[in-house]
Amino acid sequence: MIPVRRGGEILVAERAADFPSNLRKPTAAELDSVVDVKPVSWPGVQGLHADGSVATGPTGQPWVNSNAASIRIAQFKNSGKQLWVGSMPRSSPRAEEFVLAVADAAQCGAQWIVAEGGDAKRVQAALQFFAQHRKWTEWEPVGALGIVSDFEAPIEREFLNLAARRGLSTRILDQRKPQGLAGLKALFWLREKPPDEKTLRFFTQWAELGNLLLLPHGSKVDGAATEEHGHKVYKAAKARIAVPLEVWADPYALVHQTHLLLSRRYDVMRLWNGGSLNPYYTQSADEKRAVIQLVNYTARSTSNVTLGLDKKFRKARLHTFEDVRELKIEAARTGVEIPLPPVGVYAAIEVEL
Amino acid sequence: MSFSRRDFLASTAAAAMFAPGAKGAPVATVSMARARTYNPVGLTPTMERLFDGIGGLGRIVKNKTVAIKVNLTGAPNLRMGHYPLGWAQWTHPTVLGVVVSLMDKAGAKRIRILESPWSTADPLEEYMLEGNWEPMDFVRAGAKVEFENTNYLGNAKKYSRFAVPKGGHLFTHYDLNHSYEDCDVFCSLAKLKEHATAGVTLSMKNCFGMTPCTIYGDGAGVDEPSVVPKGGRGTIFHAGKRGPAKSSVQEKNPGSPRDDKYRIPRAVADLVAARPIDLAIVDGIESMAGGEGPWIKGVRHCSPGVLIAGTNCVNTDAVGTAVMGFDPMADRGRAPFEICDSTLRLAEELGVGSRDLSRIEVAGLQIADARFEIRKS
Questions:
Q1: What's the mean pLDDT when you consider all of chain B?
Q2: ipTM for this model
Q3: What is the CATH number of the domain that holds A209?
């Protein structure tokens, strides 16, 4: 079911092929099964100047507006429900921005409430593409950092957004499912209040396997500590437990410190020449297949992007809305590197071990 | 009594270093070797021969704390095309690993790897990891290997002040991270490249990156150094739009040209005179032509297939310049200095070393055989 904004009304198309002509009013039951994702923004690069230059964030990278983090949080909180993203186009959007809005939402499994405008055929092609590859959004995100949070505080939500921009891949954990810790190197209790004693004991035992546990300010941890990257770091056996020196205030600083405490050694993916891209890396349950979806938030195609992955994948396939083709894989220091052809609004690199 | 080639070169090189020669600029033997790949198995004996050509590493590093300034210019997520960083703008990690290993074998007491990475106070190891290097490879290559990010105050309580002999060209003094003072031997491990602003990038230009951006960078503090570096060196060094943090010595002549082709060669000559390079090594196995990084229009990959080493950085860079197909005696108006002043000449004027090839002995591979016309590549 694809929502479409027509005039002041939300209509739906049954399938992508029905867009844009065969629309109907959604039933009350259908509307009840939908979650309207908030907050959202019109995806793109902030401050794209007429000369093609862009405003940058603190890292010097372009400042990207993406709804991916809000969608992931909404997914976590509303398991099994359809997610609609109702961002309105900014004034005078370019045709490709309509496709970008579809891709930004769909890469994480949400439906953009399609605004009419742009090239309807291209929008339809994008909608069909994501309908055909729905399984990718059912796969689990890949990352060494697990996050336990209710995402109530703004800094908790922004953490997820900025981590993605920094190339710090994260997995949102359900604390009731401890098996979700497999494959992680660090766990972040991203909540204002520290965990209760029982939960802390469980996570500490997990950290003692050689992992990092990040706790909020005010958490009580015994033993001697060193100061590292704005945190007190307690070392017990093979565990490292980090408690911030001050209450979290700046999400950028928090992501930066967290990444340094974890170390880039555990980055599961790297991108070269991909400053305008936001990658989203998910894998199948058997961990033999994975996909890295790349959304390009600028108006220009990328040039000479190389994707680095930490696993020795043997096959790589490029999917765009128009085409599928095999990609060359090169062995790298850890894992593989995949030189990519120019990426327009969107590309997915499907890999197999 | 036996007298090996290594002993002979060590004695002649040491003597030559202090020989007055024409214009009084010192000269020392420069060694070159052919190397076509970064395979460590072949590279290790090649580099051993390279260092034998200047009398061996032992005489330079034994029982010493050695600081190695590598060239990791630009952001680690920026590549020239799809080329890994070490195949274009950065020193190659295998060359660094072999150098660390050979220095360790030659008796270095402590080896410190230094660089001022782009716009960050993050640990140097993290910066390397972002570029897909493994810093543990270097740690494992020696008994005591350390890293320091020199783009800010780092591990010290204060910056070290270096005076430029003869009063310097641009500044009389430079404030640098303590690591450049707290070493017995300073090694510049550079890349053989052209440079859009200075003509060539070799062992001397590599040292421009010693300057901490907390004092000399775009986001430098006004009165005191900033805590963390922000941006590059465009505002102060290149454009001369403002001075460094006031706690540091200000420019000699604020009325001098605000032209980076005038300023950068002078700053580089000052720096290598103020903090002498004891060992210059140039990685020219794989590189780039047309500029120093992928941000320069028209750059392309090239394979000069050569390694160069010397104990005098001007001599070494003169040989490197000649290898690239240029005349090291050239100055503004002649390639590779068509639009800039010659750092070689400016450093020579400060008494650092001679650029006159007729006075420089070359051991191993000769210039004529190593010549790689970089502009024609």
A1: 94
A2: 0.93
A3: 3.40.50.880
